[in-house]
Design goal:
Number of helices: 16
CATH class of the largest domain: Mainly Alpha
CATH architecture of the largest domain: Up-down Bundle
Number of domains: 2
Distance between the termini: 28 Å
Helix content: over 70%
Shape: globular
Largest sheet: none
CATH superfamily of the largest domain: MFS general substrate transporter like domains
CATH topology of the largest domain: Growth Hormone, Chain: A
Structural class: mainly alpha
Radius of gyration: 20 Å
Order of helices and strands: HHHHHHHHHHHHHHHH
Strand content: under 5%
Length: about 375
């Protein structure tokens, strides 16, 4: 492969990480419009939103099996087209049933893309011979920031939601057309299995991903609640915690490949989880925003490179082919995003939010200790 071809594949991989982050974040500002249009209460809206996660988790292993047969490029195109067709429907869905069904399809599109983009990234990183996964994942975060900002601005100036969505989908289509020719076409051997339960080190890496994604889900769903309920921060200020976490994570991922090159995968995972645990300690026991916010920044800095390093290890292991390993790890990780915040809620109900945050901190430290074992496989 020529150097120019390799660079084009690397840029195309950054683009495909950008796109699902952009699409998912573009949906977030539409949620209040969808709730009012379908007249859903909070509980019913929660059930509708669960359709998105259900679609994602069901589509991930199916997408991996399909990519093994026809290559990443075709599946990425299919999943992005599905997401781009579903997103405008989310802006006009008039009944709860239509909203739930469209969210399921949208979730299947972005979830399958999340899975296959990591398969693409593993192959591109392997050909490059150096860590690149953190940089790729940074573009997912950048896509999220751009998508949320673009949709918010368009709605703020009074544009109808369906018009705003069509403009953003047009931008997505343009990026897709430019990047798609450089996505990988590699296929698994004809006799390779299409499905297999994760086992050995793949199961270990998947469970470690579950915890890492759980920590991210805790920040998304519980950081503002913790600041307000436990530390007495006013509601209108509490949302700054996730903003600080997200910015710190994105900036760290942009430099993360150099960090992993210097430390190695196992040490990068250990250092990252220790830093994140220290951040949880500050955020949990610090008094007020001036102490808590540096803690949330440390959580973002520490967690930033853990998931990319785990995906790289999933691509390097020899226990399972990557067409099976990456979907398994992605699905287990995504389960952490979905189930993690609920688990935190159960623990908080039974004990306290402080105890729930402490358990998340302990789980991260356990991931750090297991990193050496995962890296040896």
């Amino acid at each position: 492969m020529s150097a120019s071809t390799a660079r084009l594949q690397q840029h195309a991989t950054r683009a495909v990480f950008f796109l699902p982050g952009f699409a998912t974040a573009a949906w977030a500002p539409l949620v209040p419009f969808a709730r009012n249009r379908t007249d859903l209460d909070e509980a019913s809206l929660g059930l509708a939103l669960l359709c998105l996660g259900t679609g994602s988790m069901l589509a991930m292993p199916l997408a991996g099996a399909l990519a093994a047969r026809v290559g990443c490029r075709r599946v990425l195109l299919l999943t992005l087209v599905v997401a781009m067709l579903a997103l405008p429907l989310l802006a006009v869905a008039a009944t709860p049933l239509m909203l739930g069904m469209t969210l399921f399809v949208f979730g299947a599109g972005v979830g399958a893309c999340d899975c296959i983009m990591n398969m693409q990234a593993v192959m591109v990183e392997r050909d490059a011979g150096r860590p690149m996964m953190s940089g790729f994942h940074a573009f997912y975060s950048i896509g999220g920031a751009v998508g949320a900002a673009a949709m918010t601005v368009l709605l703020w100036v009074g544009m109808a939601p369906w018009v705003a969505v069509l403009l953003l989908v047009g931008g997505m289509a343009g990026v897709t057309v430019l990047a798609a020719p450089h996505w990988r076409r590699d296929r698994a051997p004809d006799d390779a299995p299409m499905f297999a339960a994760p086992h050995g080190v793949v199961l270990l890496i998947g469970l470690m991903c579950f915890v890492a994604f759980l920590a991210e889900g805790v920040m998304l769903d519980w950081s503002a609640v913790f600041l307000h309920d436990v530390q007495g921060v006013p509601e209108h200020q509490a949302g700054v915690a996730f903003f600080v976490f997200a910015v710190a994570m994105t900036l760290t991922r942009l430099a993360g490949d150099r960090v992993i090159s210097a430390l190695g995968y196992a040490r990068a995972i250990l250092v990252g989880t220790v830093v994140a645990a220290a951040g949880f300690a500050l955020a949990t026991f610090g008094a007020g925003l001036t102490v808590a916010l540096p803690g949330y920044a440390l959580i973002g800095i520490g967690c930033a490179n853990v998931v990319p390093a785990l995906f790289s290890l999933a691509g390097r292991q020899k226990v399972m082919p990557e067409s099976l390993a990456i979907p398994a790890v992605t699905t287990l990780g995504y389960a952490g995003v979905l189930a993690g915040p609920a688990l935190i809620g159960f623990v908080a109900q039974a004990s306290s939010l402080v105890m729930a945050f402490c358990l998340a901190m302990a789980a991260l430290l356990l991931v750090g200790l297991l990193g050496q074992r995962a890296a040896r496989a």
